[in-house]
Amino acid sequence: MNVDLGTVRAQLSRTPGVLDALLRGLPDDWAGLTEGPGTWSPRGVVAHLTHADRTNWLPRARVLLAAGEAQVFSPFDRAGHQAVEATLSLNELLDDFAATRADSLRALDALSPGPAELARRGTHPEFGPVTLAQLLSTWAAHDLDHIMQITRTLGGGYRDAVGPWQAYLRIMR
């Protein structure tokens, strides 16, 4: 499938509202649920998405557009959100994410990548050559992946409460 920047941008713009509707006002015990050791809570995911907007997607796009394959992207610290997560409430994290994403979308609009820029290649530290279209598509898919993670984690919070209906609920598997 070809990458349509308008579709990618629209998906990115929806994520803060989706998360706000799903999570705002959630009790702390639910906001802190995880799927087990080494997994993130809904709070952690929101903090992670904000951290990724600030340090990953657009910084890499800028490097790619400025240097092409000549400069390797800086590695992304997937756990770099944990300090902020520990200091803010879930509602504050949601507000921070919404503001950060709005800034990110304005910056993406300012880049105004056309077909030639979308085809331009940069160098990922693990994968090697990647295109701007792949990077931007991954940004949108990354949002969806974490929305799925949050809903799966919240669904798991009902595991014992649903009793035998677990057998019919894919979110419990």
TrEMBL record:
Record InterPro entries: DinB-like, DinB/YfiT-like
Residue ranges of domain DinB-like in the record: 11-150
Protein name: DinB-like domain-containing protein
Organism from which the protein derives: Deinococcus radiotolerans
